[in-house]
Amino acid sequence: MTVLKKLSVTNHNKSFKYSILIGDDFIDILEKNFSKTLKGKKIYVMYDEFFYKLKLIKTLIDNFKKLSTKFSSEIFFFKTKSKDKFKNFENLSNLLNYILSHKINRDSVIISVGGGVTGDLVGFASSIVLRGVKCIHIPTTLLSQVDSSVGGKTGINTKHGKNLVGAFNRPEGVLIDINFLKTLPERELFAGFAEVIKYSFIYDKKFFKYLENNTESIRKLKSPYIENTIFRSCQIKAKIVSIDEKEQGIRAILNFGHTFAHAFENLINYDDKKLIHGEAVAIGMVCAFKLSVYLNLCSKKEAERCIGLISKFNLPTKLKDIKNIKLVSKKLLDKFYLDKKVKNGKITFILSNGIGSALIKNDIKEKTLKIFLDELINE
Ligand SMILES: NC(=O)c1ccc[n+]([C@@H]2O[C@H](COP(=O)([O-])OP(=O)(O)OC[C@H]3O[C@@H](n4cnc5c(N)ncnc54)[C@H](O)[C@@H]3O)[C@@H](O)[C@H]2O)c1
Questions:
Q1: How many CA atoms lie within 13 A of 68 on its CB side?
Q2: Which mean pLDDT values do the consecutive 10-residue runs of the chain (379 residues) have?
Q3: Ligand 1 nearest-atom number relative to CA 83
Q4: What homologous superfamily does CATH list for 186-377?
Q5: Which of 17, 69, 144, 167 is disulfide-compatible with 127, CB 3.0–4.6 A?
Q6: pTM, 2 dp
């Protein structure tokens, strides 16, 4: 049995539905669950460059070719560059030119196999080429499995900022193969755990206890702990997205820790040698807990327990963990105003009012924030 777990993503009026399938053999899952979508079609496999770098490309291509023979499909392959700096117009254009020059048609299917960068880029391309063709995501990093492949957001970065050009695009399906995590660099794996832990902080105290009690087994990708962890994470994100797909309300809680994280990432110029996104989120969540305690929304004891879980997953928890950065409260405040959640000149923070519960706060006075930040920076 290769499908170990399955869940559906939908919206509040059930106008669409697709499945997330978690298993350990994505080719087999494709064959058994997507034959109708793929049979006799042109299939465009857009794969992350890591397959090439880790010499896994031959196996990937051979497996897809066998599948296309069984399905009497035509198959094409295109390598995508990973890392955020390549999620841009130039690579979008290269990808679109490739599929257009290989005569994509409305019945064709695009498959992305890679991390969040590949998924966002390919998902966006599939939403605009011929005004939209079918897309299947096969996310290969933990972050893309539990976060970016769920919820339909796709897009690219521009010189004006991250993810500023994009579209909501619902895939045909998402296939999560846990074997991909075995080749993922440790740093990327732990960065993915930051988003996993976040779901427990904002939504589910029982899941928090599960993560706390099974940290070692989850970190070592032991079965069934890692499958359960990915499943619950996707379930929580899918649930929140189903209530508020276009981020008009509750979906904002998924940004817990992110107002701080985005400010840090911007201050270090998105230099991934200094900090990758999940690490920024980890430190950002610590800051959000401290602000919650400062505003008497969350008890110090609960906040410390949560910060403890972040460090158990090998993630940074201190501002000092950010290399070569001189933090000044005024500069941080300025960066907060760049956040997409700023409305009518008010900064929005997602804060905690206890483990498993989050709230949206946009009425903190700038003076209060400044005092808090000065204390935080001088800790
Ligand atoms: N669409 C959304 O809702 C959403 C949500 C969160 C993040 N994102 C986006 O996701 C992106 C980050 O995604 P990411 O963290 O997956 O980064 P990534 O795609 O850059 O992948 C990280 C690195 O891991 C490599 N890699 C991928 N899978 C591997 C594997 N199985 N084994 C070995 N190496 C592997 C990649 O080649 C890359 O070098 C950002 O662009 C972010 O904006 C989107």
A1: 19
A2: 82 85 95 96 98 98 98 98 92 98 98 98 98 98 97 90 90 97 97 98 98 98 96 96 83 94 89 92 98 97 98 96 88 85 83 97 92 93
A3: 20
A4: Dehydroquinate synthase-like - alpha domain (1.20.1090.10)
A5: 167
A6: 0.96
